[in-house]
Write a structure and sequence with these properties.
Order of helices and strands: EEEEEEEEEEEEHH
Strand content: 35-45%
Structural class: mainly beta
Oligomer: single chain
Number of domains: 1
Helix content: under 10%
CATH superfamily: E3 ubiquitin-protein ligase SopA
Shape: elongated
Strand order of the largest sheet: 1-2-4-6-7-8-10-12
Largest sheet: 8 strands, parallel
Length: about 210
């Protein structure tokens, strides 16, 4: 899968702090203030967040366009119903982060470490998960136009009511993953994964 990378033009580096602007652009944030920060109805355009811990930072109705999260900790953030276009999450923590009903277009998750990530009812269009730990992640009831997984750990994740037709999970770990009949239809796996899926369907294999 080819992902369009963020188009970045960075003019300055600065501290991430409270702003009254509804558009923040062309900046690289390399640290943050110690005070709680709320961003409401803000568009982040051509922005890099590097080594930022997002504790006590709140996003409400925000949009992320041409953005990179590099070595950040976004754990437990509520990023529901937000838009992400040409965004990279690289080597970042997303423990318990929620993206419910958010939309993703040309987004790359690479080297991500997470558990309890929530993508319920999210929209995926040209989204690649690569070399990431995604244990117990919820992909339930998504709108999938194009999504790909490469060398990911999806242990105990949930794909209920997910259309995975054409999705290849053959090089990912899918132990204890929850599928239903809808999500299994058209899914690609390798021969070693097949016995586990047979058990999920309640089929007994006679030796």
């Amino acid at each position: 899968m080819v992902i369009k990378e963020p188009i970045l033009s960075i003019f300055e580096e600065q501290t991430l702090k409270k702003s009254e602007d509804n558009r923040i652009e062309h900046v690289k944030f390399i640290n943050r203030s110690h005070d709680p920060i709320v961003f409401k109805s803000v568009t982040f355009d051509s922005v890099i967040f590097e080594q930022i811990v997002f504790i006590d930072i709140v996003f409400v109705d925000c949009t992320f366009l041409d953005v990179v999260f590099e070595n950040c900790d976004l754990s437990n953030l509520d990023l529901n119903k937000m838009g992400f276009t040409r965004v990279i999450f690289r080597d970042s923590k997303l423990l318990g982060t929620s993206f419910t009903e958010s939309s993703f277009k040309d987004v790359l998750f690479i080297g991500v470490k997470t558990i309890y990530l929530n993508f319920s009812k999210a929209t995926f269009n040209q989204v690649l998960f690569k070399s990431s730990i995604l244990e117990e992640t919820y992909f339930s009831e998504p709108i999938i136009k194009a999504v790909s997984f490469s060398a990911c750990d999806l242990t105990s994740s949930n794909f209920s009511k997910a259309n995975l037709r054409g999705v290849d999970l053959s090089d990912s770990i899918i132990d204890l993953v929850s599928f239903d009949y809808e999500s299994l239809r058209g899914l690609t796996i390798d021969p070693f994964q097949a016995p586990m899926l047979v058990k999920l369907l309640g089929v007994k294999v006679k030796e």
